[in-house]
Amino acid sequence: MLFTADRKDRVLIVRGVDNGLEQSWSRGGARVVPSSVTVTVKDSTGALIVDGAAATVTEGIAKYTLLAADTADLSLANGWVVVWSAVLPDSAVAREFIAEAALVRYAIAPPASADDLYARQARLSPSHRSPMTRDLDLQAKLDDAWRELERRLYAGGRRPELVMSPAQFRAPHQLLTLALIFEDLRMSDWEQYNVAAEGYRGEFENAWDGLRFTYDANQGGMPDGEGAGPDLEGPEAGGSLWLGGRGP
Questions:
Q1: Distances in Å between the alpha carbon of 248 and those of 67, 99, 158?
Q2: What is the DSSP letter of 163?
Q3: I need a labelling partner for 130 at 20 to 30 A (CA). Which of 31, 138, 180, 245 fits?
Q4: Are 6 and 25 in contact (CB under 8 A)?
């Protein structure tokens, strides 16, 4: 049975600050614990930023801190890679796992929180007098929704790290999370939860289609894309500067 490198999306390395890098592995749905792990970081030219440094392994998660001084004077660029070399169970030979990365000015934080979910569905709160369920991991759903929003931006020719008005994503993030929650709940009770699931999915799609945000297309640190939408169309399609590749 093959090992899986548990990775959600590409790694965003923020220039000039300490960056915590993490990687874990699983097999057959269960996390496996490597006996040793090293990490190598290369920039977009292939130059070594970190060369086979030892990572710490805590509860099966390999961790390494890329120091601020390692990136402070470097140019922003796509096309970086993080290479994890791990000795996994049933083998004495290290295997390499490559993650796509980019050196960026900043990485925006997901704008919606559990409180935004409670504002629309109070019974999602575990402190409600009659909570809908205590089994839901709301933070995991918020994380899943945010990753889907990032993937949609990539597909539309946008890079999330260049968005200058992340607050504009609060409503789409809230609505997509609620859609994911009720799509999950309806698997156990279709009749009770399907209407809500479809309703939130429709609200999300409308919010996404109407989304406008400022965007730093030239990576100058200031917004230069007033009124930009989530998808590039026509002449505007060349307005986003891709360094290396466009991501996944």
A1: 26, 11, 11
A2: B
A3: 180
A4: yes
